[in-house]
Amino acid sequence: MLNQKTVNKEVIINGIGLHSGKTVSMRVLPALPNFGIQFKRIDIQNNNIIIPSVFNVTNATLCTKISNDHGVQVSTIEHLMAALFGLGIDNVMIELNNEEVPILDGSAKIFIEKIKSVGIKESNIPIKIISINKKISHREGDKFISIEPSKTNLLIDFEIKYQNSLIGTQRNLVDVYNSNLSDIYASRTFCLFEDVKKLQSMGFALGGSLDNAIVVKDDEVLNKSGLRNEKEFVNHKILDCIGDLFLSGYKVVGKIVCSQGGHKLTNDLLRKVYDDKNNFSLHEIKEKTLSNTLVNRVSLRSIA
């Protein structure tokens, strides 16, 4: 049975917001089946619940920001959402005392470690998945993304193209439910050295440092430890894509092909999918009809 899961007990995570530069304390709390994933701004007294959903994304510039009908926001949720997706967690309350999820090391690795350290609790309520019925595409200039049917898997074929000689063109294809995802979840956000001052003047990356991002200057990685894996740049984009896909509210079965995309392109694609009910089907899983274990438990054990 592929049943809904939550954390076994609260997970406490403290850190700094990548873009706000503000310190934040966050608690990931157990929740009952069918509760879903919810964010709660405990620094705000009223109307402080924000649901991570496709249509609650209010800004997708350099991160994914969600808001409720009262304008209460939470930003940079994508790495945490990817960790929850990968661990198969469907139901949690996430409490924060500030506007941004902590960036930690710039990847999803620490989120996964923290959650695994308290354990995962399984219910007797089956999960639901969303499967894609026909190909949907979205293009913005040179940027392109599509999703099409797949029998039992979530495949992500992602390509990036940078003028920088070190990053250049990278491409990777990941079978999310069957691959070892340790490199994906450990891959950090990155930027070019020459863009840092511009980003900060625009109010971004105020909490950025070599502790939470890869910084590339010409043909050199400024981080003393170097890269964690050969395709860390494109792998981080795949990590972001996984987290943003979870805003669909379900595990996704389909094939994503993306070139030079990001948070906005993924969100725009999901909005197109939901525009027509004939584009997708919703299934309750009552037996192991998906390949492997869907939550990819074996692969995630290697993340330490």
Secondary structure elements and pairings:
Layout (H helix, E strand, L loop, with lengths): L2 E5 L3 E6 L6 E8 L6 E5 L7 E2 L6 E3 L5 E3 L5 E3 L2 H10 L4 E5 L12 H10 L1 E7 L1 E5 L3 E5 L2 E6 L5 E8 L7 E7 L6 H5 L3 E3 L3 H6 L12 E4 L2 E2 L10 H14 L5 E9 L3 H13 L4 E5 L12 H4 L4
Helix pairs in contact: 1-2, 1-5, 5-6
Task: Walk me through what this model shows.
The protein contains 7 helices and 20 strands. The chain has 2 domains: 3-127, Ribosomal Protein S5, domain 2 (2-Layer Sandwich); 129-300, lpxc deacetylase, domain 1, CATH 3.30.1700.10. Strand 2 and strand 3 form a beta hairpin. The longest helix is centred in the last third of the chain and has 14 residues, at 232-245. The strands form 5 sheets. Strands 11, 12, 13, 14, 15, 19 and 20 form a 7-stranded mixed sheet that branches. Strands 2-3-9-4-5 form a 5-stranded mixed sheet. The protein has a 3-stranded antiparallel sheet with strand order 6-7-8, with no helix packed on it. It is globular, with a radius of gyration of 18 Å. By secondary structure, the protein is an alpha+beta fold.
H and E order: EEEEEEEEHEHEEEEEEHEHEEHEHEH
- CATH hierarchy class name of the largest domain: Alpha Beta
Categorize the overall geometry: globular
What is the share of helical residues? 10-25%
Extract low-pLDDT stretches. Answer: 289-304
- Separation of termini? 27 Å
Gyration radius from CA atoms, angstroms: 18 Å
CATH topology of the largest domain: lpxc deacetylase, domain 1
CATH architecture of the largest domain: 2-Layer Sandwich
Distinct helical segment count: 7
CATH superfamily of the largest domain: lpxc deacetylase, domain 2
User: How many DSSP E strands?
Assistant: 20
Mean of the pLDDT scores? Answer: 93
Tell me the structural class.
alpha+beta
- The number of distinct structural domains comes to 2
Largest sheet: 7 strands, mixed
What percentage of the residues does DSSP assign to strands (E)?
25-35%
